[in-house]
Amino acid sequence: MTATTTAPPATTTTVSTAPPQSSDRLRAWATRAPLLPALIFMVAVTQLPFVATLVISFFDWNALYPKARHFTGFDNYQQVLTDADLRESVWTTVLLTVAVVVASLVLGLALALLLDRKFRGRGVVRTLLIAPFLVVPVAAALLWKHVLYNPEYGLFNGLLHYVGGPQPDWISGTPLLAVEASLVWQWTPFMMLILLAGLQSRDQQQMEAARVDGASDWQIFRYLTLPHLRRYLELGALLGSIYIVQNFDAVFTITSGGLGTANLPYTVYQSFYQAHENGLASAAGVLVVIGSIIIATFALRVVSSLFREEVGRA
Known about the structure:
Layout: H1 21-32, H2 36-56, E1 59-60, E2 70-71, H3 75-82, H4 84-115, H5 122-134, H6 137-148, H7 155-162, H8 170-173, H9 175-199, H10 204-212, H11 217-228, H12 230-245, H13 249-255, H14 264-274, H15 278-313
Antiparallel strand pairs: 1-2
Helix pairs in contact: 2-15, 3-15, 4-9, 4-12, 5-9, 6-9, 6-13, 9-12, 9-13, 12-15, 14-15
């Protein structure tokens, strides 16, 4: 007797390979919708005013004679770059930025090396050293102008009077240095925090191996610590430059832009609010923004390289 088995009929299942585009779009909009108000607010607050400033920079526009405005092309930019007073303000901006950034980096590195050591009360000292960076810029400038620099009741002259020294007028005698000192005091904690983060990310096994091999503290700092901090030094210099290039508070509060301390942001203020030259002030402002964007581009590259290095170590 032969058993006959019959195979069940084959069923064909058709699988649709077409992606559900409509559902993906709905999901994408659902995830992005909560961000739309913030995006609209950012565009309205930052991009639209910049576009308006860019348009005004191509006009000869004096607020006192609004009907006489007319299109001039790049004449305002040419005047910004060729006018002697404006060129001097550009040079003052460069000098102020370089001096403040370099001094803040050196002092910040010294303080970071100090705070990297373990000692009693390190947390309190760290908090006190960070405090100047948390002070409102205008308040910091007023503090230096009246509490420290004042020739009659300032702290500096009080100490000099106590030891029998001279009584200089700090702002009139060294105006640019007076502005730089207040900015260095305010920005040193920022550099210190960046460099302290770099110090605490060092390879401790490598440091211990160098000490076992007989390397001195100076050799460890020169050949291990300083090369490791290169990226952090670059980041601090770039971020500090972005903010100090645009500094207005210290110059306006301490010297009112006089005695050769008028930087480019203060010159923009003078052109706009005192001379009422809207077109010329807008052109100078656009140049400041372009310079800040260039510096920020380098800063973002440094940050990206730091992230890549940390991911590579992990």
